[in-house]
């Protein structure tokens, strides 16, 4: 038995090694109990799955499927566009079903290493495809619950996630995010524990006290009966008195958790604070400033959560991002800083600086002058003074003051023009334009000269309005970035960080895409009302509008009001085939989106930048000793 178990263990280890390395061979186990590794059908499926362009074709189908999802009309469900997209969805689902079936035949189902259902990504594919197939079956039968069909169709938004496992770098970023959430699980538990404690305290303090009467003259619930005259509208109308509850309250722990989470995002908390200090007793309306001492509760809450826990949570995620990046090269003998510095040295492109060989020529003397530190300091001083002059402009200035600023602008433009001329003489035309900074300086000078000429012409010709040329004046400030070694290194670090952002941005874009499609499917048919947060400027009617709404929510701008406007029992668009729209799913939808944006978008971007900040000192040690000018006219610097 020991020999058999050892042989079995060795066989599984060899199978795992084969799965991890090179082109994947066929799994050395029977698939579905009847298809051996030599079975012709299984070998044919394995051949298709391992074809060179198979994954690329699936990626293209995923992209087309995602575009089709974004193009759907959430209001007119029976429109011709949706009918065309429905047949396209049949094709996409057929392709994904074919992919799933041949992979099941190739890999087997579950009982051996490398089987289909032992990979979480394959399980995700199975859920998405099965949901689409069941939705098609339900839509073909009359009398089925329409909400069930809509819920199953929402699973289609998970299709873009199939791209993660097919792009190694994107998968590495995703794994880093998942692992970071695992590592901060302890701090998340403490976070939820303290949130629960504050929620329980809030329930004890404010339960049943966030009610009010629509007639402000009535304080007690028993008096809030009958009708009253409403003078706030253009016409005086008799309105029924109603005993209402504020949108955010503390009547139970769940509502307290939602209210406190909203407060922690910095949205709507002044109004919640006002309702808290105005709260009196149960079955009694608010009284302004009734218990001002309760504001201490919110001060303590803000110190504990937004100022402490949230920052610790974000910091731990950033640290985990960096640690996960180090694990990739854990077997290397060099540390992270040394590897990064060597990578920089290998990929760096040495720049050249021209130097005239004839030291007696006028060109050499000009070159000596323009590369001297005094000249550089003078140019920096002129840029600083030009900045001050740009700040001196204000509305309705006297004519003499405007004339003085115009003359100063001409003086600075002349100085920067002279700088360009001297450098062209010193370096030569070709060598001058080899430097991107010199090209930028030259374009800025040309734009500034054009600005001066157009300004003079515009005084006599009102039809010429090229005010955008004044941007060239502000562009001179960018010249400061090339002055000074430290500034250039910081600028280099900033540029390098963008190279690490694409896959982080792609993951964030995928998050926005999924939530935008879900929003269109669930909230797209809500009637537009300018008195609510779902209006003609802010809605889920189209994919672009949904993205803009989510971007607004991600910035924290009144996301809680949008959430309230998407709740159930809302009026539907006249063209929608429904009597009631919206859903209480909005609570989970917006809270989860804000949570993911707060703890993924910002930490992910910061982590990408932080990965390059450690290079500054090491690049300095490598870079400065190579700064010299050779007598051959070309040198490293």
TrEMBL record:
The keyword Phosphoprotein applies. It catalyses: Ca(2+)(in) = Ca(2+)(out). Keywords: Calcium, Calcium channel, Calcium transport, Disulfide bond, Glycoprotein, Ion channel, Ion transport, Membrane, Phosphoprotein, Repeat, Transmembrane, Transmembrane helix, Transport, Voltage-gated channel. Residues 52-326, 373-601 form the Ion transport domain. SUPFAM superfamilies: Voltage-gated potassium channels. InterPro entries: Ion_trans_dom, VDCC_alpha-1_subunit, Volt_channel_dom_sf. One of its GO terms (cellular component) is presynapse. Its main location: membrane. The chain crosses the membrane at residues 53-71, 91-111, 123-141, 184-206, 296-321, 377-395, 407-433, 500-518, 585-602. The keyword Signal does not apply. It is a multi-pass membrane protein. GO terms for biological process: calcium ion import across plasma membrane; chemical synaptic transmission. One of its GO terms (molecular function) is high voltage-gated calcium channel activity. It comes from the Eukaryota. Pfam families: Ion_trans. It is found in: Membrane. Gene3D superfamilies: 1.10.287.70, Voltage-gated potassium channels. Chain C (1.20.120.350). This is Voltage-dependent N-type calcium channel subunit alpha-1B-like. The lineage of its organism: Eukaryota, Metazoa, Chordata, Craniata, Vertebrata.
């Amino acid at each position: 038995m020991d020999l058999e178990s050892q042989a079995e263990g060795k066989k599984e280890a060899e199978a795992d090694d084969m799965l991890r390395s090179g082109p994947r061979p066929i799994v050395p186990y029977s698939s579905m109990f009847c298809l051996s590794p030599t079975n012709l059908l299984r070998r044919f499926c394995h051949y298709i799955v391992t074809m060179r362009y198979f994954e690329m074709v699936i990626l293209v189908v995923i992209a087309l499927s995602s575009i089709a999802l974004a193009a759907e009309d959430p209001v007119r469900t029976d429109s011709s566009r949706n009918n065309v997209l429905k047949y396209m969805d049949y094709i996409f689902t057929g392709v994904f079903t074919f992919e799933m079936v041949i992979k099941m035949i190739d890999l087997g189902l579950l009982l051996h290493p490398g089987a289909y259902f032992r990979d979480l990504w394959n399980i995700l594919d199975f859920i998405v495809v099965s949901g689409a197939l069941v939705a098609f079956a339900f839509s073909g039968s009359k009398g089925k619950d329409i909400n069930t069909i809509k819920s199953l169709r929402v699973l289609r938004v998970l299709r873009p996630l199939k791209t993660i496992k097919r792009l190694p770098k994107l998968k590495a970023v995703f794994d880093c995010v998942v692992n970071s959430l695992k590592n901060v699980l302890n701090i998340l538990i403490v976070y939820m524990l303290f949130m629960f404690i504050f929620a329980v305290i809030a329930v004890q303090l404010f339960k049943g006290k966030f009610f009010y009467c629509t007639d402000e003259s009535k304080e007690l619930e028993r008096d809030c009966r009958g009708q009253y005259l409403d003078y706030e509208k253009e016409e005086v109308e008799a309105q029924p008195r109603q005993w209402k509850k504020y949108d955010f309250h503390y009547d139970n722990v769940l509502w307290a958790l939602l209210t406190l989470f909203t407060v922690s995002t910095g949205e709507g908390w002044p109004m919640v604070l006002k309702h808290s200090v105005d709260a009196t007793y149960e079955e009694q309306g608010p009284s302004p400033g009734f218990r001002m001492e309760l504001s201490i509760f919110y001060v303590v809450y803000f110190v504990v959560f937004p100022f402490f826990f949230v920052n610790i949570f974000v910091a731990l995620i950033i640290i985990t991002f960096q640690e996960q990046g180090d694990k990739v090269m854990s077997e290397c003998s060099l540390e992270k800083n040394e590897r990064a510095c060597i990578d920089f040295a290998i990929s760096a492109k040495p720049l050249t600086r021209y130097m005239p060989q004839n030291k007696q020529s006028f060109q050499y003397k000009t070159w000596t002058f323009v590369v001297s530190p005094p000249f550089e300091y003078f140019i920096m001083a002129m840029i600083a003074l030009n900045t001050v002059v740009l700040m001196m402009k204000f509305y309705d200035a006297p004519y003499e003051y405007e004339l003085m600023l115009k003359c100063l602008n001409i003086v600075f433009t002349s100085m920067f023009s002279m700088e360009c001329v001297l450098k062209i003489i010193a370096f030569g035309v070709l060598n001058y334009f080899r430097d991107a900074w010199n090209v930028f300086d030259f374009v800025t000078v040309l734009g500034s000269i054009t600005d001066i000429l157009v300004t003079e012409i515009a005084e006599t010709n009102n039809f010429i309005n090229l005010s955008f040329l004044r941007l060239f004046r502000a562009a001179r400030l960018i010249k400061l970035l090339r002055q000074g070694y430290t500034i250039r290194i910081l600028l280099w670090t900033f540029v390098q960080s963008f190279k690490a952002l694409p896959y982080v941005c792609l993951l964030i874009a995928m998050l926005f895409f999924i939530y935008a499609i879900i929003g269109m499917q669930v909230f797209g048919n809500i009637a537009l009302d300018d008195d609510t947060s779902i209006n003609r400027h802010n809605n889920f009617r189209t994919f672009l509008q949904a993205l803009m709404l989510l971007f607004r929510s991600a910035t924290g701008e009144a996301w809680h009001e949008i959430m309230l406007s998407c709740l159930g029992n809302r009026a539907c668009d006249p063209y929608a085939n429904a009597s009631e729209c919206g859903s209480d799913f909005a609570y989970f939808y917006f809270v989860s989106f804000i949570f993911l944006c707060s703890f993924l978008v910002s930490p992910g971007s910061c982590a990408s930048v932080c990965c390059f900040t450690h290079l500054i000192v090491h690049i300095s040690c490598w870079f400065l000793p190579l700064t010299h000018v050779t007598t051959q006219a070309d040198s490293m610097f």
